[in-house]
């Protein structure tokens, strides 16, 4: 990847529906070159998918929580991962180092709904301990990051 690929990715990151012709004008390449570069990044797995970002509250999910999960033993991890992957309210799952093994990001309708999900998480085989954090407000929520053109902190 070169700086032009990063520029194309930046444009797609801000609006994945942006036309190749618009991107080509902004990065000073031909439309066919932009399309070719995008296809190569897709084939290489750099671009994994195109998606939408919804406003959770406007689609009825007013509650966001982070749930830390500690497992009894790694032998339970695969089953746990399979379960959380299938749960539509678990919108992110991270495998961690440290005191807890997983961090789940959950969006749901209400406190009552959260209680159901919390019971469901605690009921998975091998779950030893959980710790739940209510999200009061979202300050920053981007879905991917790209290296800066120049190193920034």
TrEMBL record:
<keyword id="KW-0805">Transcription regulation</keyword>
<keyword id="KW-0804">Transcription</keyword>
<keyword id="KW-0238">DNA-binding</keyword>
<dbReference type="InterPro" id="IPR011008">
    <property type="entry name" value="Dimeric_a/b-barrel"/>
</dbReference>
<dbReference type="InterPro" id="IPR019888">
    <property type="entry name" value="Tscrpt_reg_AsnC-like"/>
</dbReference>
<dbReference type="Pfam" id="PF13412">
    <property type="entry name" value="HTH_24"/>
</dbReference>
<dbReference type="InterPro" id="IPR011991">
    <property type="entry name" value="ArsR-like_HTH"/>
</dbReference>
<feature type="domain" description="HTH asnC-type">
    <location>
        <begin position="1"/>
        <end position="62"/>
    </location>
</feature>
<dbReference type="GO" id="GO:0043200">
    <property type="term" value="P:response to amino acid"/>
</dbReference>
<dbReference type="GO" id="GO:0043565">
    <property type="term" value="F:sequence-specific DNA binding"/>
</dbReference>
<dbReference type="GO" id="GO:0005829">
    <property type="term" value="C:cytosol"/>
</dbReference>
<protein>
    <submittedName>
        <fullName>Transcriptional regulator, ArsR family</fullName>
    </submittedName>
</protein>
<dbReference type="InterPro" id="IPR036390">
    <property type="entry name" value="WH_DNA-bd_sf"/>
</dbReference>
<dbReference type="InterPro" id="IPR000485">
    <property type="entry name" value="AsnC-type_HTH_dom"/>
</dbReference>
<dbReference type="InterPro" id="IPR019887">
    <property type="entry name" value="Tscrpt_reg_AsnC/Lrp_C"/>
</dbReference>
<dbReference type="InterPro" id="IPR036388">
    <property type="entry name" value="WH-like_DNA-bd_sf"/>
</dbReference>
<dbReference type="Pfam" id="PF01037">
    <property type="entry name" value="AsnC_trans_reg"/>
</dbReference>
């Amino acid at each position: 990847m070169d700086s032009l690929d990063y520029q194309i990715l930046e444009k797609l990151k801000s609006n994945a529906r942006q036309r190749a012709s618009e991107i080509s004008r902004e990065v000073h390449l031909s439309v066919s070159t932009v399309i070719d570069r995008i296809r190569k990044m897709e084939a290489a797995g750099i671009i994994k998918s195109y998606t939408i970002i919804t406003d959770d509250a406007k689609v009825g999910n007013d509650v966001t929580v982070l749930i830390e999960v500690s497992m009894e033993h790694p032998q339970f991890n695969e089953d746990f991962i399979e379960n959380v992957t299938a749960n539509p309210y678990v919108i992110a799952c991270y495998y961690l180092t440290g005191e807890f093994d997983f961090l789940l990001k959950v969006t749901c309708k209400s406190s009552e709904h959260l209680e159901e999900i919390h019971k469901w998480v605690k009921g998975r085989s091998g779950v030893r301990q959980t710790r739940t954090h209510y999200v009061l407000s979202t300050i920053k929520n981007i879905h991917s990051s790209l290296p800066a053109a120049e190193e920034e902190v």
